[in-house]
Amino acid sequence: MGNLSTKIIGVIAALLIFISLYLVFGYAQIESTMLEVQKIFYYHVSAALTVYLAFGINCLFSIKYLIQRKSNDDLLAAAAAEIGLIFCTIVLLSGPIWARYAWNTWWNWEPRLTSTLVLWLMYIGYFILRSALEADKRKLYSAVLGVIAFVDVPIVHFATKFWKSEAHPERGAKFDIAPSMLYTFLVVLAACIILFTLLLIVRYRIQTTQTRYEMIQQKHLAEAS
Amino acid sequence: MRIIVVASFVVVLALFIFATQVPVDITPDKVSAAVSEAVSKSEAPVDEEIVEQVVLNSIAVLEKGQSTRLKYLASAYLVIWLVFMLYVLRLGQQQQALDKRLAQLEQTPETQED
Questions:
Q1: How many other C-beta atoms are found inside a 10 Å radius of the C-beta of residue B94?
Q2: I need a surface site. Which of A66, B12, B41, B88 has the fewest CB within 10 A?
Q3: Could you give the ipTM of this predicted complex?
Q4: To the nearest whole angstrom, how far is the Cα of B98 from the nearest Cα of chain A?
């Protein structure tokens, strides 16, 4: 993907973020139970859905690497996991702020919170593994871990169905959501996905440049010796 | 990169201030008028003064808690902004360091040839 395409995606991302913030603060009606605090929901939930997408891409390219053994698939999987981890951090940090107001506690060990924390820890483990191993083993083992870690994504999603939760609503629960809130949520979700795409391209480009640099360096060292 | 960080912070802050400065347009006169209208439509006997007082008390409670709620809202968006900006800054630093190293590496053979 060329520089121009990246710039266009960057401009779209910036515009969408600006519009989404305007919609969150200035357009969406205030919800009657949580009042202003409910506005955390828009970015919290959108970030959580982007996490699913990011770790899904990680799993997909990990499987592709395991089949075809192409280094670029490993780099793309790692880039997706890294940005997924950033979004997951946002979910885990914005959640307790909501929880403090809604449930009067920063954290409770309810199913979705716990499984999300486990997901975050698994991908932290993914990067610890990558930094601890040499190139060939790193690619293979992290691809395997990427596939295994993704198993936790449906667990997070269906956690409220598997185990009864008093905090998060059960999956499929009917909400009486105002149109202004729904449109705002959809725009924020689009902004998160575009932002994820932009960061993925930038991160992947840095990683491929890094790999190229290492190859040139090795070539120089070989020529020198 | 610094421009992006500063500009994004200004945008988030401006939108937040813009949203939270919207005046709450519920005055005692409007409450009184709304209660009178509702009571006039009611078939059951209702004490208008009591209803009005209950509504005014509810509004007072809501307004009192507004600053606390806005603190939670501001904290959440500040955290989200911080995480993104720290990551964007880190990406920028990595890119700069890599460009610098690549430039050095490209210069090496020329230096050797000289």
A1: 16
A2: B41
A3: 0.87
A4: 7
